Amino acid sequence: MEVKGKIILSLPETSGTSKAGNPWKKKEYVLETQETYPRKVHFNFFGDRVDQYPLQVGDVVTLSFDINSREFNGRWYTDISGWKAEKEGAAVAVNDPSMPPAPPAPAPFAAQDESDDLPF
Known about the structure:
Oligomer: single chain
Helix content: under 10%
Number of strands: 6
Number of domains: 1
Order of helices and strands: EEEEHEE
Structural class: mainly beta
Largest sheet: 6 strands, antiparallel
Shape: elongated
CATH architecture: Beta Barrel
Distance between the termini: 46 Å
């Protein structure tokens, strides 16, 4: 799924160690949509994506995300986990392995032969 909006809040990064002894980190943001009736969306990046997508308050982004709900003690909780954020007006990252390679540039046109009387 995707949503476009402006980052209005950047929460502090949290980190820790899992039960298996592996380090983890999470960064949370709040995005406000740019619709007639704006909505606020709280989302997070987890693991390596925290460093891959450093966002700042004021950035206008298109966020690609997954929604996951889980039950705990009879209550339901929903997380919005971002997996890609494209800043408006930013160039595509060159080192992103998920992107297909760019097509080759077209060859320049050769000089037109003077004996050819076609107009094109």
